[in-house]
Design brief:
The chain has twelve helices and 16 strands. Strands 1, 2, 3, 4, 5, 14, 15 and 16 form an eight-stranded mixed beta sheet that branches. Strands 9, 10, 11, 12 and 13 form a five-stranded mixed beta sheet that branches. A hairpin with a 4-residue loop joins strand 1 and strand 2. Helix 4 packs parallel to helix 5. The protein is globular, with a radius of gyration of 21 Å.
Length: about 400
């Protein structure tokens, strides 16, 4: 469609706040050229798209996805068995699902054989076969021998292997280094209650990556791994579950340390109001049964944690581990935004976590995540008013990617 667009909607979210009274976003050559109040005359050369009952907002950003995972139970376990063609098909399906849901940027935090990174490079070379969200990628996550997601190929057993792994990622131009600081819920034999690296080795990972100009985000379920990650100087923590033998423990001191260091928390998995525990990963079932809790209690505790982190000044961003199961299938980011709002964040703060704040966390805040002149024209229009009903974000009416209408 003509790249000279004028998109009119009743209201907008600009990445930080809601705007009412009518908004017109002017797009030219893939960029936003202006955001104007009301519905001014835009001339005869522009294609005008009207959404009288809609809200326009920046494209959503998923900061924690696994595009090599197929959004079904046991998705991560299947990755190692895919042929290259099968893996490419799974990645394509994940990107399609994300775009249909209004996600225009995806940060992949764990692939195999650098498949998603190669897809990113194809995209950047202009060789994408169909419209797809902008990809940012880490390649295989660094993990310990037999550690969480070891089958993805990122095992490092000593500092010389850490050096080689970081050097390879720097040479390939990854967007972020992912390290598994604790065991994971979906890898048999790993321990979610304890670190996978010594504190000194984790600091070595971070220092080496920072020397190469690469940010680091750490998967951390165990409280001890969260503390090690904070002290190591990571840029982000995924999940931040703060698990111990006696349950979840998140102290004010840990919150203050995370906030003071500007560490971003992602990998927040929304807990549904009800779920079939038989479909949950074994480690999840074990923890729930050990604590004598039901899904409702787990959900309440998780929301309380998020509220405390937010009120403590910690930046939360949206990345639900997309693709690893049906519960967090690709394209369900809006459900996490709703979850954040239910946990106590305002509708504006919840949506900022998926737009401007997510863009900053991913290193693309100077060109994505805002309705602002000069920014990429990645735009979404939804039916309804997310300022009063975050569920409206599920009602995607139109998606504009780089100035081209690709959905709706």
């Amino acid at each position: 469609m003509n790249s000279m667009l004028a998109i009119r909607a009743s209201r907008a979210f600009d990445g930080e706040r809601f705007l009412t009274g009518g908004v017109t976003v002017l797009v030219d050559d893939g960029r936003i050229v202006d955001v104007e109040e009301g519905f001014p005359d835009v001339g005869v050369d522009r294609h005008i798209i009207e959404h009288p009952a809609g809200t326009i907002h920046p494209g959503l950003i998923d900061t924690h996805a696994h595009l090599a995972a197929d959004s079904a139970q046991g998705a991560l376990d299947r990755i190692a068995g895919y042929t290259d063609d099968e893996l490419d098909a799974v990645i394509s399906d994940g990107l399609r699902r994300q775009l249909d849901a209004g996600v225009t940027t995806v940060r992949d935090l764990g692939d195999r054989r650098f498949a998603v990174l190669d897809r990113r490079d194809r995209q950047r070379a202009g060789a994408a076969r169909v419209p797809e969200p902008t990809i940012l990628a880490s390649g295989p996550p660094l993990t310990s021998p037999n550690g969480h997601c070891h089958y993805l190929g990122g095992v490092v057993a000593d500092r010389s292997q850490i050096e080689r792994a970081i050097d390879e990622r720097a040479a390939r131009g990854v967007d972020v280094v992912k390290v598994m600081a604790s065991g994971g819920m979906t890898t048999a034999g790993t321990d979610v209650l304890n670190p996978q690296f010594t504190a000194a080795d984790l600091r070595f990972v971070v220092d080496r990556a920072h020397q190469a100009g690469l940010p680091v985000t750490a998967h951390a379920h165990a409280l001890s791994a969260v503390i090690d990650a904070v002290q190591a100087g990571v840029d982000g923590i995924e999940h931040c579950s703060c698990l111990t033998e006696t349950g979840i423990h998140l102290s004010d001191e840990v919150i203050e340390a995370i906030a003071d260091r500007g560490i971003v928390i992602g990998g927040v998995i929304p807990v549904p109001q009800s779920m079939d525990l038989s479909l949950a990963p074994p480690k999840v079932r074990e923890l729930i049964y050990r604590q004598g809790a039901g899904v409702e209690q787990v959900r309440a505790v998780r929301m309380q944690m998020l509220d405390r982190l937010h009120r403590g000044g910690v930046q939360l961003v949206t990345g639900p581990d997309s693709g690893i199961s049906a519960m967090v299938a690709h394209g369900k980011l809006a459900e996490l935004i709703e979850f954040l709002a239910e946990a106590g964040l305002s509708p504006a703060a919840s949506l900022a976590a998926a737009t401007s704040q997510a863009a900053q966390a991913c290193g693309v805040g100077s060109r994505k995540g805002m309705l602002r002149r000069g920014y990429d024209a990645d735009l979404v229009v939804v039916d309804g008013d997310p300022s009063t009903d975050p569920g409206a974000l599920c009602n995607v009416r139109s998606v504009v990617l780089g100035g081209t209408v690709v959905r709706g």
